Amino acid sequence: MMTSLTISDRNKTEFFSQKLWWLKQFVSTKPFIFLLFSLMLLLRLIHLNADPPASTFTYFPIDEGWWVHNAKNKVLFGKWILDDYNTMFYAPLFNYITYLSFKFSGVGISQARLASAVFGFLTLVFFYLFVKDLWNFKGALISVFLLGFSHVFLRYNRSALPETSMIFFIILSLYFWGMARKREIYALFSGMSMVMAYFCKYYAMFFFPLIVLFWAYERFREGRRRKKFAIYYLSGAALTFAGWLWFFILPNYADIRMANNRLLSGIPSHSNLWIFRSIVLFGKESLLRELPGLLILSSLYLIFVGSTIAYKGFKYLLLKINFLEFVALSWLLWGYIFIVAFLKTQPNQRLVVLIPPMCILSAKVITECPSINLSALLDKIFGPGRKLSRSALWYGVLVFPIYAVVGYALVSYISPIISDNFHIPHGNAGFSILSALVFLAFYIGAFITFFLIRKRTSRFLKSLIIIFGVLVLVFGVVLNHSIVFLTKHFGFKVGKEPGIDYINASLLAMFILSVITVFVVRRLKSEPLRSLKLGAKVWLGLFVLVNLYNVTSYMSNLSFTLVDTSRKLGEKYFHKGTRVIGEMSDILCLENKAFSFTPFHGGINENPIERFHPDFALVTIYRDGRKVDKPEYITSTGQLLERFYLCPSENTEGYKFIVELYRL
User: Fold this and answer.
1) Beta carbons within 8 Å of 326's beta carbon, 6+ residues apart
2) Which of 194, 207, 174, 197 is nearest to 97 (CA)?
3) Are residues 335 and 441 in the same domain?
4) Which of 57, 327, 378, 448 is in the most buried spot, having the most CB atoms within 10 Å?
């Protein structure tokens, strides 16, 4: 009986092994690649006019209308510029692409998003080719799988925002850069593509310093100057920029200058310490909570890099990693620094550009790092023979993520006390000053702690600090937002602002977990830190679970309030040329032929009633569950016609926006 069971079990094992072998073979075939990309294309095109997911940031649909404002004006009314809000001067190529979409397929919400859907798919194609050329088929397949099925990246591929087209040209430039390693003439197209990315949206300029860095890295690795490559690249960039200069910038110079002056005048000034305030907002960033798998894997890669630098030095790291890893690592780190330090504001879409390098680094961890030896991190960084300065530096590196996650809570708590007693100004400037002081205190505390530990040689305390720092770096943001979600879901309320109280709760949870971890491994008479085993199936399973849940829950509960309301307005109230004012007017006039414009905002469209004489006003009275004061231009003579409920949400009102229509 036992023998028969054994034979039966063996047959089952062989059967499943054969099936698994067949599956592995099928994954490497062209039909599978075709099916994979077909599915990714379908997800980007199906129900393109549906409302955005409830998890999108509040101003998502408002921004969509604003960014296609000029293209719609050109198609319907024959002029690009009809008011002061002209996004074509901040993203000209995106506006021209959207204009072509409107010109050949009509004006509408689907048509506004079509360009991003197409460019999003093309981004995946060239991203796959780029990674495959510099790595291998398996790495490219996992990387494009992570990027293509990331529900966050998918969301922006289905939006009328310029980020997707900008990312496409960045990826295209990198693809041609990789091709130029074989034939240098491709560097010409790489330079052209990078300039096109800049004209899709101007903050693509963050990539310009990286170009010099990439060229220097290749020269360092290969030992040759590659002058021909540089000539081709600069020629392509110069020719493309000259074309834009001649045909766009010079003819519109006065309007471009005026538009940028108006935009800059509406941006509040900040202190030079803004970067410290921006860093502490990292722990509150809502987009990061939607990327737990990519965030964890990218953080693990950064730990691996930090350990290598501390033990072998920076030069050894540059020799160890390949060009693809260097591109992804520098893209991720410099991109985040640029966004928080120079752009100063952090709407979610600005962080979307960091998802492609996160996918590459995550794929590297999945495929090439079956285990990360965390015990080596302790011995290599803080072991005997390490210089005090280097060890203190890496304690600061581990303290940095703790500061990023918990800094907002600390500064928020002490801000009223410090401001009142030491006359530090309130507002963003005061918050930035306090953030810098907290960061300095964190770093000095880390240095002193290290010095004391070094004297007492307490391995237990060292282990506790290292584990705690690693846990915060890898799981800090994810755990923070998980606690916020669970407490809201079950109706728990601690204080007024969850972003303050729950950050402390997540930090306490990680501290307790650190203590338990150290006690357990010491109890088992093993090393204080064991190797952390990373199974590709586990991480891919986590990624699939999170993204499958988000995509299926969105696709199974689609709503079309934006397109339905826009069409209803066209049928009942608006005709071609009707003048409509309101922050939601641009998106709600895409399915009709009314002329829409935004009210006074950020130094733009000042005195709109006197200048444009609107016929109707679309007034937002609730935005993301919060009541909004009615604007001054709604007087007692305004006639309320109808109320519209837009974009279902889980807030107290049940909708992200409640808008009233007034006749003026």
Assistant:
1) 214, 217, 318
2) 197
3) no
4) 327
